[in-house]
Every structure is written in structure tokens, then in C-alpha cells.
């Protein structure tokens, strides 16, 4: 990983983060192993407009690369979209030495990695994340996937990118909503593994951080610490047998909320927003199941409920209107990939920085934690 010029290789993946990240990409593409390779860029229509010009300005040789665009959003993360790209790769005569560059947020990283893993039994791919969610989570660690219907990430591969290039200048292209969504992953990393970072976030406050210029050192530190932490975990447990499951805090309930709102026009939760709401509920579960103190639980829940107040109210409104229900949320949890023998398993907190794995919870306990989401709204 680089910050102002440093690089490290983790599990065969070179991760570059800093002002020179895209310049390093140009050097890589000019190296012996890449000069003769066919390069294909996968992006979405928003990223093509706002981020591709910067990439091409720094790596002008990519101006002649084949380009595939998808529509932005979770609806594009499907087997149908993957098949369409595979056919386009065939038409472009991409071979096993070809390189797919995924320029975009979490959807592009997940879908592009899935496509690369499946095409001709695996081609090289490079992630260039342009969203905070992509930088902090989706582009790192080699988990690829597509959705099946409304169910998140039900088909996928563990397949590492050859390299990841994180240029935080792309954060300037994000809306406040997408910056807030990505911030949820930074929050999660702090809660499960970095009490010092958690205290720093508490000191600044969510709104002050989100209002800060993304070029400031604070943002560089937040991204660097989150990427470093996730890679440390992924390196030790690549295929998520045990330790890597700690990264799922907030995701069990979060994925259920995201899936259930996916088809609701103008009310679909962004991934990070759903995870933030999931963390509130799972913090309450932690009080019941793993001994998280009431004091710590109140601080965590209050912070998240304040930072994601609009999303809490929107979810409450959807439940009142009957668009979704607590029962449907609970039933959706049975599709979670971490479940075993038909039982729902959670990653919860014993205390800040100390997660607990494979914690089973009863439907009535889950219902209580979901109802407590709205207690201060």
C-alpha cells in the first residue's frame, strides 16, 4: 500500500494509495508483463463522465482501450449483466492475458471481479475505486459477487485483483449521500478493530468529518487506516473461514434491509446506509448476547442514529406504510451466507475493538433489536 509513494504487496495484491497512485498504474501498464496485453475498462455511466477523464489524463494510453459501460446501481450487479460483459469480451477477442480495469464504486468492483474470475477461468483485473465505499471495502480483499434477484451477493468468487490503485482525489466527485454511505465502512472498521480511530471519529463528529474537504489529511488517514485494517484481516483469512467474519458486523441485518428496499422507487437504501442501520440493531443485539455494556452501546447507537437520522426515519416510515415489516426483515436474514444449519449467525461486539463471531440470535431478540432502531427517532 502506498501513501505518498510507499507500496506493499498483500496476498499477491499490490495496493497503492496516495497522490501517485494513478502514475503507478501507468508504470504497471508499461511494464513487460502488461505492454502486449489487451486492456478493457469497465465503468458505469456516472464514472465514465466524472472519473474516466482523470484516469486517461494520467494514463493516456488507456484512451484507446476497449470500454464497457453499465448503468449505475445495484440492479446492474446481476448474472445477466455479467453474461453481457462476457459476450462483449469475446467479441473484443480478449484472451487469458487480457486485463480488466474496474473504474467505479462497489458495484463495478464486485461485478468486474466476478466477470474476471469467470471469463476463460480467470483473467487479471485491476481495481481503481472511485467511491469511498469502493476504497474502504469493495475493491479490497478479493470478494467478488452478483446478486440473485433481490438477494445480495449470492453468487461469487474469492478472486484477488492483481493490483488496486486508490486515488482519493476521486472523492471530490461524490455526493454527500455517497460519502456518508462509504463512511459507514470506516465506522465499522473502527468499532470492530480500532478503538483509537473510534475515539478520533467521536471527537470530530460525523457531520464535521463529512463536511471536511476530502483532500485534507483527516480523510487520507481514515481511508489509509481502514484499508490497512481490512487487508490485515483478509490476508490472514482470505476465504472467510473464521477471522474475516468480523468484517460482517452490521451486514447481516444491513443486507436484509438493503435487499428489501432495493425495488422501492426513490427509497432504496445505499449499501453503507443499510449497514449503518444494521450496526445500530446489531449493537443492541450485542447488549443482549455478548455483554456489550449499556454505556458503550448507548454511545455507539446514539452516534449512528444521529449521523443516519434521515435513513432511520425513512425506514420507520416504510414500516408504518407497510412497504416492509420487521417480520419480513427477520425472514430475509435466513438467506445470509454466514448461516449454518438453518440458524442465523451474527458478528457482534463484546466491547469496542473486540468482536464476537458466530453468535446465534432468536427471532424475538432480533425483533427487539430492530424496534430499538427507532427509539429516538
User: Any idea what the CATH superfamily of the largest domain is called?
Assistant: Dehydroquinate synthase-like - alpha domain
| CATH architecture label of the largest domain | Up-down Bundle
Number of helices: 16
Give a count of the beta strands, DSSP E runs of length 2 or more.
11
For the record, the count of structural domains works out to 2
* Order of secondary-structure elements: EEHEHHEHEHEHEEEHHHHHHHHHEEH
CATH class of the largest domain: Mainly Alpha
Overall pLDDT: 92
Strand order of the largest sheet: 1-2-9-6-5-3-4
Distance between the termini: 41 Å
C-alpha Rg (nearest Å): 20 Å
**Helicity, in percent?**
40-55%
Q: What structural class do helix, strand and pairing data support?
A: alpha/beta
CATH topology of the largest domain: Dehydroquinate synthase-like, alpha domain
What report would you give on this structure?
Mean pLDDT is 92; it is low at 1-6. This protein is 48% helix and 15% strand. It has 2 domains: 8-173, Rossmann fold (3-Layer(aba) Sandwich), CATH 3.40.50.1970; 176-374, Dehydroquinate synthase-like, alpha domain, CATH 1.20.1090.10. It contains 16 helices and 11 strands. The protein has 377 residues and is of the alpha/beta class. The strands form 3 sheets. It has a 7-stranded mixed beta sheet, with helices on both faces. It has helices at residues 21-29, 45-50, 52-58, 79-91, 106-118, 132-138, 176-193, 195-204, 206-211, 217-236, 251-261, 271-289, 294-307, 309-321, 326-332, 363-371; strands spanning 8-10, 13-17, 39-44, 66-70, 99-104, 124-129, 146-148, 151-155, 163-166, 345-351, 354-360.
Amino acid at each position: 500500500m502506498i501513501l505518498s509513494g510507499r507500496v506493499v504487496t498483500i496476498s499477491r495484491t499490490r495496493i497503492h494509495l496516495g497522490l501517485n497512485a494513478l502514475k503507478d498504474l501507468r508504470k504497471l501498464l508499461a511494464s513487460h508483463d502488461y505492454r502486449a496485453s489487451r486492456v478493457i475498462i469497465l465503468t458505469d455511466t456516472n464514472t465514465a463522465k466524472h472519473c474516466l477523464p482523470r484516469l486517461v489524463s494520467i494514463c493516456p494510453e488507456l484512451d484507446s482501450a476497449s470500454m464497457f459501460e453499465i448503468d449505475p446501481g445495484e440492479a446492474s450487479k446481476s448474472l445477466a449483466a455479467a453474461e453481457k460483459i462476457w459476450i462483449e469480451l469475446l467479441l473484443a477477442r480478449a484472451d487469458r492475458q487480457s486485463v480488466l480495469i474496474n473504474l467505479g464504486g462497489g458495484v463495478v468492483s464486485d461485478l468486474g471481479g466476478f466477470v474476471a474470475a469467470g471469463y476463460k477461468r480467470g483473467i487479471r483485473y485491476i481495481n481503481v475505486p472511485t467511491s469511498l465505499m469502493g476504497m474502504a471495502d469493495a475493491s479490497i480483499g478479493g470478494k467478488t459477487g452478483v446478486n440473485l434477484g433481490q438477494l445480495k451477493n449470492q453468487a461469487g468468487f474469492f478472486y484477488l485483483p492483481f493490483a488496486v490503485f486508490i486515488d482519493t482525489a476521486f472523492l471530490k466527485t461524490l455526493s454527500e449521500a455517497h460519502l456518508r454511505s462509504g463512511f459507514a465502512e470506516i465506522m465499522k472498521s473502527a468499532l470492530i478493530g480500532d478503538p483509537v480511530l473510534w475515539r478520533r471519529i467521536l471527537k470530530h463528529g460525523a457531520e464535521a468529518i463529512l463536511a471536511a474537504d476530502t483532500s485534507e489529511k483527516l480523510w487520507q488517514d481514515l481511508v489509509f487506516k481502514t484499508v490497512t485494517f481490512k487487508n490485515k484481516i483478509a490476508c490472514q483469512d482470505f476465504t472467510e473461514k473464521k477471522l474475516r467474519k468480523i468484517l460482517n458486523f452490521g451486514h447481516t441485518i444491513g443486507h436484509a434491509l438493503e435487499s428489501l428496499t432495493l425495488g422501492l422507487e426513490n427509497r432504496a437504501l445505499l449499501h453503507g446506509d443499510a449497514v449503518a442501520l444494521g450496526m445500530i440493531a446489531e449493537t443492541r443485539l450485542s447488549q443482549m448476547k455478548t455483554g456489550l455494556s449499556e454505556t458503550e452501546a448507548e454511545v455507539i447507537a446514539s452516534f449512528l442514529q444521529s449521523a443516519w437520522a434521515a435513513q432511520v426515519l425513512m425506514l420507520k416510515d416504510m414500516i408504518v406504510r407497510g412497504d416492509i415489516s420487521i417480520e419480513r426483515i427477520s425472514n430475509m436474514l435466513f438467506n445470509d451466507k454466514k448461516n449454518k444449519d438453518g440458524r442465523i449467525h451474527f458478528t457482534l461486539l463484546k466491547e469496542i475493538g473486540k468482536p464476537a463471531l458466530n453468535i446465534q440470535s432468536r427471532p424475538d431478540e432480533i425483533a427487539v433489536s430492530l424496534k430499538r432502531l427507532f427509539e429516538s427517532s
